[in-house]
């Protein structure tokens, strides 16, 4: 009987050690990407980023013809589009790689959807003009999913856990 208890404890110790080893590897992987994540947050805190975002949402379509694509836009407009689009694109990539939890990105869903609505026609035309068929495809795909998710659904960093009606993207 004592041998069975000893074997049981040994198996339990092996299982718990394996579990904690996998948790440690996962934490180390995320820690390696922390500088990139923090750099994105620095960009988000800049006044320039928010000016670019406001321009893309409010003025881009009114000031320019989408038939120009992105490459046909004036330099300032191109900079605004690329700054905002690739910022959001990079967040989606980090989520898809499992580096950040989808709750972080869900707080940006409204920005993603509104940004894609503003730049989508320009990006689609750019794909025709320049042979880059998958330009910002990840952002486009996420925006389509985010548009279907009600703002108050699923867990978010803006709400305590458990408040929400459905799981999000």
List keywords for this structure.
single chain; 2 domains; 0% strand; 169 residues; 7 helices
Task: Write the topology of this structure.
Elements: H1 2-45, H2 47-58, H3 60-63, H4 75-96, H5 102-106, H6 109-129, H7 137-147
Helix pairs in contact: 1-4, 2-4, 2-6, 4-6, 6-7
Can you give a write-up of this model?
This protein has helices at 2-45, 47-58, 60-63, 75-96, 102-106, 109-129, 137-147. It is mostly helical and 169 residues long. It folds into two domains: 1-32; 46-169, no CATH class. The relative contact order is 0.10. Mean pLDDT is 86; it is low at 162-169.
- Summed up, the domain count is 2
Shape: elongated
Strands, count:
0
Secondary-structure-based class equals mainly alpha
Low-confidence stretches: 162-169
What summary fits the major beta sheet?
none
Question: What fraction strand?
Answer: under 5%
* Rg estimate, integer Å: 22 Å
Q: What is the string of SSEs from the N terminus onward?
A: HHHHHHH
> How much helix is in the residues?
over 70%
Determine the mean pLDDT: 86
Distance between the termini: 51 Å
Number of helical segments? Answer: 7
Care to give the gist of this entry?
It holds the Pfam family DUF4760. The chain has helices at residues 2-45, 47-58, 60-63, 75-96, 102-106, 109-129, 137-147.
